[in-house]
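During the second year of the project, the team shifted from modelling isolated chains to modelling whole assemblies. The rationale, set out in the original proposal, was that interfaces cannot be judged from single-chain predictions alone. As a representative example for this report, we include one of the complexes processed in the last quarter. Its constituent sequences, exactly as entered into the pipeline, are reproduced here:
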Amino acid sequence: MKESLTDVGTFVAEYAAHMMGCGVHTSRVIRCAKRIGEAYGYGVRVSVFQKSLIINVQGDSPQERYNEVTEIPALPISFAHNAELSALSWDAHDDRLPLAEVRERYRCIVEAPPLPPWLVLVLAGVANASFCALFGGDWWARGVVLAATAAGFFLKQRMTAAHVNHYIVFALSAFVASLCASASLLLPTATAEVALTTSVLFLVPGVPLINGVVDILEGHMLNGFARLANAALLIVCIAVGLSFTLMLVKDSLL
Amino acid sequence: MIAMDVLSDALFAAVAGMGFGAISCPPKRAFPYIALLAAVGHAARFCLMTFPGVDLATGSLAAALLIGFGSLWLGRRCRTPMTVLCIPALLPMIPGKYAYNMVFSQIMFLHTMGDAHGRTLYMDMFFSNAMVTCSVIFMLAVGATLPMFLFPKRAYSITRRR
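Output from the structure prediction step:
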């Protein structure tokens, strides 16, 4: 029995909005949404903007259409959702799964618990300390960067959970991380400046930067520039946070 | 000694790549591949800059291309889109020192506005560092995404089971 147009349309709209929200580049979202529609014999057209998307699903007759405008939710970036939801669209297409099963798998993917926040905090701290080592920082500097990243990242997690504006989150986290890293100026290390340099780099918005370039090169100019503008604003926020610390300690650096 | 330098560079890059990847919540099966790509990419740039004396931007482009092709090849094995593997692997190559010097020179420029010598010095420092930072980030992005456009069919069906 063929799945109903409304059921497929509602699901595809929710699926595409979730993918956009968790940091998937535009052409992949469109391809995956079309693939799911195709699996049930419907043509899907999607028009994607930064904050909302418009979906049109064509039924069997020209009069039969499903249209929806969906708001894109502001979700944390998730590579796991990106990978699993892309794979789900292929499974629906290749194995001709019933819509109820696809819905169930979708629910399992989006409700799966993410990595525990404490583990992410530890990994981010160790990563930034390694980054400090790559820039030539000694063991003192690496230790300070580990602690500074942990402090900055903890603050970021708390403020994000409290739904603080994300520009403020980035500026404050950068300020706190770099201020903690400036403690290296009091320690017997010749690489205090390396510690200051690396302390804020865990905040670099790599995903919108790369997705922005991919979108622009694939012709999704508006979304690409919107992503790059977002990334540029976040980088400015990191610079503002770091600047406050530098203004406090610049005499020790000269 | 040189082999140790290359190995330690690769090791630190692998740890940094995995940690930065963890922030964006990748599937658990992707971690070893991210580590491998980050290590190979960073070590390749290190070797290119140390031995033939290639500049930072060109070295970054070569390393990003390596990561891009690597993620196209390995992405098929772990059923993850290219960007899931290549973005965390690229992050340890962000030119942090130059970005930092950019911010520092801007503050010092504003601080030494009254002094012609200091103003010129920090203005020069700001633009030199801004040019390197922007060029390297651009090269990283272009290098990593180029394989996607060279082999679109493979890149677009990378999460397919059959």
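Helices of chain B lie at 2-23, 31-50, 56-78, 82-90, 96-111, 116-150, 152-156. Chain B has one domain: 2-156.
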